[in-house]
Amino acid sequence: MDSALVAEHQGGYTPFEADITSHVTAGETFRLTVAVSNELTQSTIPPGSIAEDAAGRRTQTYMHDFYNYAGIHRSVVLYSTPAVHVEDVTVVTGFDGDGTTATVDYAVVVAGEGADIHPVRVRVLDAEGTQVGAAEGISGTVAIPDVVRWQPGRGYLYRLVVEVLAHDGGSGAGAAAGGPAVHDSYTQTFGVRTVEVRGTDFLINGEPFYFTGFGMHEDHGTIGKGHSGAHMVNDFSLLEWIGANSFRTSHYPYAEEVMDYADRHGIVVIDETPAVGLNADFAGFFGTGAKKTYGPEFVNGETAAAHRQVIEELIARDKNHPSVVVWSIANEPQSSEEGARAYFEPLAALARELDPTRPVGFVNVMFDGPDKDTITDLFDVIMLNRYYGWYVNTGDLAAAEAALEAELRAWEAKLGKPIIMTEYGADTLAGFHSLYEAPWSEEYQADLLQMYHRVFDRVDAMAGEHVWNFADFATSNGIMRVDGNKKGAFTRDRRPKAAAFALRRRWTQNKTASQA
Ligand code: GCB
Question: Which PANTHER family match (predicted)?
C-alpha cells in the first residue's frame, strides 16, 4: 500500500489537524500513522540542543526543569465534517448598562466551497438549555438579559449553538419544523465575565481578584504527561480542598479537558505558552554551553518564528475559555540582555492583537530584578518567580524576608501594576522533619511559605500567590534534583506535606466573594 505524508506540525502542546479526504475511500479500511519526535533544537519551543559524538551517540540537553517525555499524550480524533462547515467561533462578552444584561459578540468562520451562500444563525442557551437569545449572520451581538455571570468559584456556562443552514431551504433536520435544513452545527460553551487591569488591581467582573493556587505540571507517576480524566479530577479536588482559586499552566498549554473543567468549576487560569528555557543564564544549572541568549547560537530568528506560532496556536485554541484571564507568553526568559526587548516587543504586540480582551504577561526570573529587567513594562501584569530562602538566603528566612520585601516594593514603585508571585517555594522531602530551620524539611517549607505570605500582606500591589509547585514532578537528571523536583505541596502521588495544611488554613480563611 502506498503511503503519503498528509501533515506535519511542530510543537507538542496545541492541536493540529489534517484533511485526509483525498487519501481515503469511503467503506474501505486505511492505516493512519501518527508519529512524534521529542527532539528539541533552537528552532523548537521549548528550545534544546542535541550533541553528537564521534561514535554517533546523540545527547539531548535543554534548559527547563521538567522531564522531556516522548510519545502521544493526548487524544487523536478522526472525524468528518460536511463540505461546508463551521471552522472557527470567537465569543467575546461584556456587560451593558447596569450590568444585568450581557453582550455576547460572536464571529463565525464557515469554510468550504460556496460557504458564503449559506445562511448562519446562532442561538444562546443557558445552563438549563433554555434559549435566551438569537441572531443571524456570521458575526453580531446577542444580548442576554438577567445574565448569570461566570465567576471565580462559580463557573456558570452558556452555550452558543452555531448553525450553518442549507442555502436553498433544503430538507433534513430543522426542515420538518418549517425552518431551513441545518447543514452543519457547532456548540461553543462560554461564560460571561470581564477581565481588566486597573492600577495595581486585577479585576474580574469589575471586582478585585486575588489569585491563590499553584504553578502546576502535567506529570504523574505511571502516565507521565499523559492526560487521564481520573487524575485530573483528583488534582482539581485537591485544589478545592486546599482553597486554591486558580493555577498557571506552567510551562505549556494543558490538555483541553483541563481547560473545560476549569471553565465549568470556576477555576481561574493563567495560560502559558511552552516558551520556557529561553535563558542562557541557566547554562550552569542545566549543564548546557550557551553563553548568550539572544543571537545566532541560541534564541534566534527561528526561535522567534516558533514562538510566534505557539502564541498564535494557544490563543486560537483557548480564546473562548472564560477561565483564562492572562496569557503568559514565556517563563523566565533572559530579560536583561541586549536583544531581549527587540525579541519580546513584537511578541507582546502579537498576543494583544490576537486577543485585545485579556491581559498579557510573561514570567520574570529572579536574576533580572527591577534594576536589570528591560521588558516588563511591555506587559499588563508583573509576574515574578522568586526563591529567597531557597536558592539564595538558603536557610535564612529573616534575610530572605527583607530581600523579598525590598524587591516587591521596588517593582511596585517602578511600574505600579498588579504583581502576581507566580512561583515561590522550597524543595521538601516528605517525611523529613526538623526542629531547626532546616532546608528540605516539611517545617521549613511551611515556614518559608508563611514568611512570603507575611510580606505579600504588607505590599498593596500584590494581586496573587501561586506556590511552586502543586506536586512533586519529574525532571531531567542533574545534581540539583533528587528523583525530580520536590517543591510540591503534595508528593508526586498526591499526599499532602505539612505545607499543604498551612496553605489550606490561609486560603480557606477570610475569603472575599471574588476569592471564594
Ligand atoms: C523556576 C522555574 C521552574 C523550576 C523552579 C525550581 O524558576 O520556572 O520551572 O522548576 O524554578 O524549582 O527551580
Answer: BETA-GLUCURONIDASE
